[in-house]
DNA sequence: GCTATTTATATCGTTCACGATGCAAAAGTA
DNA sequence: TACTTTTGCATCGTGAACGATATAAATAGC
């Protein structure tokens, strides 16, 4: 019989405590940081994943869905509906590929391109927002190589 | 007129590139790491956020919803449905508080307590899984204080 | 004691993530 | 050429996150 005593006396595995979970920190940090972007995105009428798609397309316009999915390390079952919403919002077009008619070529509309101007200030604003609240910027940058190794190791099916 | 030339020639803000986004790394790392837990959770019939709730309750049984929400830095509009699903799955009970009838006291069922045994191996398994794929463990641990500062700075309404 | 405000939880709608599955076009193979 | 497999994308269902809003109970102010 599992009783109250058990919960409290025997549940003392240090590793099974929230405070000791790296994963919970990553999960929370990711949520809070994307949350910090919210004011800017709300103003632009986009969401965080939509911003990521725009970043990809601003770097290189007219890419098939699979390229975008690869870059974001997401699957098409996440990306397709995302792109459909962005198309409906007038940010992109999704036209069939010419050589390979299975592919969908995603291209920025004028509105999607114009949004680049509004986005210009976001990185600096965010740096300031976060620096003001956490004090640290150096340390954050130092995490990058570690996060990259982690991502590189855990992503698969390239 | 915004044209193709513009995208490619003038969109050269280094900060507006996916590769330079700390946020994208956090978002991706969090997704991939929780993904690494999936095999274990699938076996147990739970999800990652449900695991977090269990961690909280294993540490201290019988807590009101707001306590759990505070610990996880989530709002009740996320936690309530989560707890409802866990109740339906037989992991917890949600009873009304006695002094304050507004509160819902969340308590582990025997099944929820018993699941602690199955969870015992998860942290070690995951450490091994991730170490095998990324090689690094030291570095991951070194991120913890930085993530904590970030989280502490960005969370509000305690 | 009575209204005003706050608190604890819940509901609703929208947008992700993601496993499972479907489908048609392309590529490979006999 | 006919057949099989792979690829690229889409659809469906479920479970989060989260903004907005609702509701009832508790608390505060008068």
The CATH topology name of the domain at 44-115 in chain A reads Arc Repressor Mutant, subunit A
CATH superfamily of the domain at 44-115 in chain A: Winged helix-like DNA-binding domain superfamily/Winged helix DNA-binding domain
Low-pLDDT runs of 5+ residues of chain A are none
For the record, what CATH class of the domain at 44-115 in chain A applies?
Mainly Alpha
Draw up the topology in text:
The structure is a homodimer of 158-residue chains.
Chain A: H1 6-9, H2 22-44, H3 48-59, E1 63-64, H4 65-72, H5 76-88, E2 92-96, E3 104-108, H6 110-119, H7 122-134, H8 138-154
Antiparallel strand pairs in A: 1-3, 2-3
Helix pairs in contact in A: 2-7, 4-5
The first copy, chain A, binds a DNA duplex (30 and 30 nucleotides) through helix 2, helix 3 and helix 5.
What does this structure look like?
- Two copies of one chain form a homodimer.
- In chain A, strands 1-3-2 form a three-stranded antiparallel β-sheet.
- The mean pLDDT of chain A is 93.
- Helices cover 63% and strands 8% of the residues of chain A.
- Chain A is mainly alpha-helical.
Highlighted features:
3 strands, mainly alpha, homodimer, 8 helices, Arc Repressor Mutant, subunit A, DNA-binding, 158 residues, 3-stranded antiparallel β-sheet, 63% helix
Gist?
With 158 residues, chain A is mainly alpha-helical. Chain A contains eight helices and three strands.
């Amino acid at each position: 019989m599992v009783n109250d005593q058990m919960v409290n006396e025997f549940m003392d595995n240090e590793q099974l405590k929230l405070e000791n979970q790296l994963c919970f920190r990553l999960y929370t940090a990711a949520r809070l940081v994307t949350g910090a972007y919210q004011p800017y995105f709300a103003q632009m009428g986009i969401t965080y994943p939509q911003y990521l798609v725009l970043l990809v397309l601003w770097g290189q316009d007219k890419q098939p869905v699979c390229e975008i999915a690869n870059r974001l390390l997401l699957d098409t079952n996440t990306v397709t509906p995302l792109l459909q919403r962005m198309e409906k919002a007038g940010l992109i077009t999704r036209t069939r590929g010419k050589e390979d008619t299975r592919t969908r070529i995603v291209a920025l509309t004028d509105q999607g391109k114009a949004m680049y101007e509004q986005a210009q200030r976001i990185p600096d604003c965010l740096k300031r927002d976060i620096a003001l609240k956490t004090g640290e910027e150096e340390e954050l940058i130092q995490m990058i190589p570690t996060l990259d190794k982690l991502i590189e190791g855990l992503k698969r099916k390239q």
